[in-house]
């Protein structure tokens, strides 16, 4: 059976309308296999869908993951306002199988799912201007606003302990102690930088445990490429990639977004003298996020928003450093010492944000309502 025949066979399990025409690889995701599928009606008018093979080696409880997505998207569809729809905001829509399930499992044990294709909208790897970040922040803020009353505890953790910084630091200390490749001596300064901030890094985890901040539904991968922007208006159209939607803190999502977009250089850039907080990008994302979600945040969440950006960046640096010590088993590397370079970059960004904490707080207070 050819690849196209296989895809056609999988497609036949879903309630697509029309006759199968073609399926082609789509996007640049690194975890799931994604295809754009075209069906045509009797007049050859095309309708397109997204078909994905879920990587069940990464997401081991794929059934639970799909239940999360099914319940969350259904709830979002019931909550979206006419005003949001008029502005073009859309909810990712699952296509059911002919057996009325949210996924199809083939004879080889692979899990497949399908979505309505969002037309005339694109995911961007990099923000070309601050307005793109404003629209991304607003879209993620709307996503969390619509889910603000959803019972987050009813969702499963698709990746257990994903933002558990206490656990991340335990892994780092274990990697330092074991030092299987004798790399620890090359990064003593970075190890000390991280460990000296271990207590502050646990703030959000402790806050959730104590009830100081509420448990919410979180996206957990708030990079700009997970918002489709309208090709004509540039507005945020649809939040995608819901595999890591699970219980957590809104501060995780905000902090990780700033981590990914708020620096003046790329996360593996080596010229650290050029690394500063890009306040134009920081303010643009913050403004969009708070315009949509600010009214739902508690005073304590608002107080910890700038700290969240520091903690999420520190956590990511710890993960890079741990992977470097363990032999680069998790993050793909493309040059020598790549994960150590990434860790140094993230720690420098942490240092810069610590110095600018008052300015970051002023910007947040400017848009809280």
From TrEMBL:
Pfam families: APH. InterPro entries: Aminoglycoside_PTrfase, Kinase-like_dom_sf, Pseudomonas-type_ThrB. This is Mucin desulfatase. Residues 23-263 form the Aminoglycoside phosphotransferase domain. Gene3D superfamilies: 3.90.1200.10. It comes from Lacrimispora amygdalina.
